[in-house]
Automatic annotation (TrEMBL):
Name this protein carries in UniProt: LuxR family two component transcriptional regulator
Start and end residues of each HTH luxR-type domain: 143-214
Pfam entry (one): Response_reg
Residues in Response regulatory domain copies: 2-122
4-aspartylphosphate sites (modified residues): D52
SUPFAM superfamilies named in the record: C-terminal effector domain of the bipartite response regulators, CheY-like
Entry keyword annotation includes Transcription: yes
PANTHER family reported in the protein's UniProt record: TRANSCRIPTIONAL REGULATORY PROTEIN NARL-RELATED, TWO-COMPONENT RESPONSE REGULATOR
Biological processes annotated in GO: phosphorelay signal transduction system; regulation of DNA-templated transcription
Keyword Nucleotide-binding: no
Length: 214
């Protein structure tokens, strides 16, 4: 796997690069700002971009904007965004394209090597991975519709889907059968009005609905 890193903190950038190297993942470019990310993506066509949300010059959302432009520049580019704080709208913006290969993690997750590496592989392989703290906040907020039509178990399954778990992993987490999870997922798609489509990823659309209305 070939990765581009965009992170303004020299220490964190070097730490991520070392961590990836230990997992035999090659960092083909490491930059400190969004412009550097776009240049690196254009030059190297990486398998994954790991991007800090807040970067120079204003330290607001330059990294996210650069990540979205990079996905336009290289359609389907998997992007794993790192943030210091939980900011749900960033996760929503990443997923709004309706495609997989996106992740949103708090920077503190990097310290958990196994969790971080799992997220890297999951996103690079076209999956989604949303930080569990984002999921927890959405669960606690309790906004109305359309998530209210789901049963508590279906909401639990959808929350695990948002974290990027496969049906098999969800079944293991909930100690239920694979068939039971498949039934819950089917019910979720049906209740949220997500019909099969060649143009949209239903799993991603369900997660996006959860993030927007959870």
């Amino acid at each position: 796997m070939r990765v581009v890193i965009a992170e303004d903190s020299v220490l964190l950038r070097a730490g991520i690069q070392r961590l990836l190297a230990d997992e035999n993942i090659e960092t083909v470019a490491a930059t400190e700002d969004g412009d550097g990310l776009l240049v690196a993506v254009s030059e190297h066509r990486p398998d994954l971009a790991i991007v800090d949300v807040r970067m120079p010059p204003s330290f607001t959302d330059e990294g996210l904007r650069a990540a979205l432009r990079a996905r336009e520049q290289q359609p389907g580019l998997p992007v794993l965004v790192l943030s210091q704080y939980v900011e749900e709208r960033y996760a929503v913006e990443l997923l709004s394209g309706g495609a997989g290969g996106v992740g949103y993690l708090l920077k503190e997750r990097v310290a958990d090597v196994a969790e971080f590496v799992d997220a890297v592989h999951r996103v690079a392989n076209g999956g989604t991975c949303i930080d569990q703290e984002v999921i927890a906040q959405l669960m606690a907020r309790g906004r109305r519709n359309p998530i209210d039509v789901l049963t508590p178990r279906e909401r639990e399954v959808l929350g695990l889907m948002a974290q990027g778990l496969t049906n098999v992993a969800i079944a293991k987490s909930l100690t239920v059968s694979d068939g039971a999870v498949e039934k819950h997922v089917g019910n979720i798609f049906s209740k949220l009005g997500l019909e099969p489509s060649a143009e949209e990823h239903r799993r991603v659309r369900a997660v996006l609905t959860f993030l927007e209305r959870g």
